[in-house]
Each structure stands twice: as C-alpha cells, then as structure tokens.
Amino acid sequence: MSFHTENERVDAFKKASVYPVVTTDFCAGRNPLDVVRSILEGGAKVVQIREKTMSDRDYLELLKAARKLTNEFRALLIA
Fold first, then answer.
1. N or C: which end of the chain has fewer CB within 10 A?
2. Interacting residues of 33 by C-beta distance below 8 A, sequence separation 6+
3. Where are the alpha helices (DSSP H) in 1-79?
C-alpha cells in the first residue's frame, strides 16, 4: 500500500523515529534490497537510497524494486 497524498507522506515522515540511508558502498557486499528489507523488518518507516556512482538505469531499477518493498511495509522511500 502506498501513500496517496502529500499530507500522508509528510505525516508518515514526521512520525518516523529512524531514517536510514542505504548506499551500495556501505552494504558490505550485501544486496542493497536485502539491506532495505532488513531495515523495514526492523520497523523503519522511512528509507532513503542514495547512489552517486550507479548508472541512471541501474539506479531506477533499484528504486523500483525498493518501492515494492516500501509499499509492502507501508514505508516511505526517498531517492
């Protein structure tokens, strides 16, 4: 389930107690989607994915997959 309005997203962001930022450089060789899933299973309601060296196409594919996970956990995804 995703957030449909800006107010829903802002409200969810305000309620978040943690705001992890994921980048492949800091995943210690793990798949970043596995890291995102672990973060969400741990209760995070906001996750940011930041990639400075990844191609735009690969980044978009990563974000699409991460969006599916955040929707599953009703969490916000920030890119």
1. N
2. 62, 65, 66, 69
3. 6-15, 32-41, 56-72
Residue 61: its pLDDT value, please?
98
Rounded alpha-carbon distances, angstroms, from residue 24 to 29, 38, 56, 70:
8, 14, 14, 18
Between CA 22 and CA 50 the distance in angstroms is: 6
Q: Say whether pTM exceeds 0.90.
A: no
- Residue 46: which H helix or E strand, with range? strand 46-49
* Nearest residue to 37 (alpha-carbon basis) of 5, 67, 7, 60: 67
Separation between Cα atoms, residue 54 and residue 56, nearest integer Å = 6
